[in-house]
Amino acid sequence: MSVSRRNFIKTIATGFAVTSLMLSGAVSVSAETKGLEKEDLKFGFIKLTDMAPLAIAYEKGYFEDEGLYVTLEAQANWKVLLDRTIDGELDGSHMLAGQPLGATIGFGTKAEVVTAFSMDLNGNGITVSNKVWQEMKKNIPHKDGKPVHPIKAEYLKPVVEKYKEEGKPFKMGMVFPVSTHNYELRYWLAAGGIHPGYYAPHKGDTSGTIDAEALLSVTPPPQMPATMEAGTIDGYCVGEPWNQQAVFKGIGVPVITDYEIWKDNPEKVFGVSRAWADKYPNTHKAVVKALIRAAQWLDEGGLDNRKEASKILSRPEYVGADYDVIANSMTGTFEYEKGDKRSLPDFNVFFRNNATYPYYSDAVWYLSQMRRWGQISEYKSDDWYKDMAKKVYRPDIYAAAAKELIAEGKADAKDFPNFEKETGFRPPQSEFIDNVTFDGSTPNAYLKSLTIGLKGKDKIK
Question: What is the band of 12 on the pLDDT scale with cuts at 50, 70, 90?
Fold first, then answer.
């Protein structure tokens, strides 16, 4: 869908004040009919495959169906994206799940940001350099000549210890201090007995390297492979297609996916400032409706829709990576060591398993990891975690959007949570790589059950 086509539809819809019109197979509804407060919108994203719901909502005309005229714009990094959303230069953005929470509690940029839509489940991986892999591989059990998965960080620990003995730091990249990637990488390392370090914002230390055995630092996603190839980092945690890119370039090996670290973990969200949400409630609901439809499309049609989506995402205005690299994970497989391609149908989930619903318990998990690694310096009560989750995550807006789609015949009620009974808290989850159970209603008990990390009244001195 080109900009000229978008403007043409808008001109006709406004000039003739029609409720709807049929044009090239897409229905466009005027903003007046929808009661929208704002119709021209600009959304930001980072060049990752999990921005797909935005691209598909645009390309398939779902935004237009809601009377919205959207421009999508790639951003340089997560900080720029967040700042521009807060400042109003962007109406909303593809965000790390931890960004609305981190901003609202004041870690880094202080601002109130909310989310009413979860963009996907899973989708990340941890990759190490060829040099590290050759050493790590010696410690991994094999079956039929191939490594047994999931690969735990305990197999990396001897490599990290060897670096320490030689007086060399072991360095890994992640995309942002409050990113899913940071917490997944830390979780995996800690589960294998490798300390990823603490933050101490109350002391002005936001490096996250206090007591660290592996030093984690920020690298923008598209730069991960080149940074590792240059030897600046020894590995990284990132979303696709940048793990598969390392395989295709022959510079590294993805050792584990986040699906294997925490099955069906929430990944990205669509975030807006609280001020924007309050000012444009009908527009916000319309955006969520379009994104729900896009997520549905991505999980329908077998592999056909995923292949089409991969072609769309490969275009330079979206992700800009080769189709084969993107399709390697988007079509239900994942390649680890070169030639070791395995079936992983749930690596990218966009709609199934209530992927789009913004669960309070998901927010609580991210907050618990912020506390675990010192980004939240002091003890907080269980009620604080729940209250903060409810301040940032907005399932009420999601439910209103979903109910309208159901009433319009564009969605089926059975594909959503039971909104009348839903509490916003998932049942306790135990499918983590260390088999520790997470119950979102008791975050302090959960923190206490983790071997490495802050808990109770602990505070970095």
Answer: very low
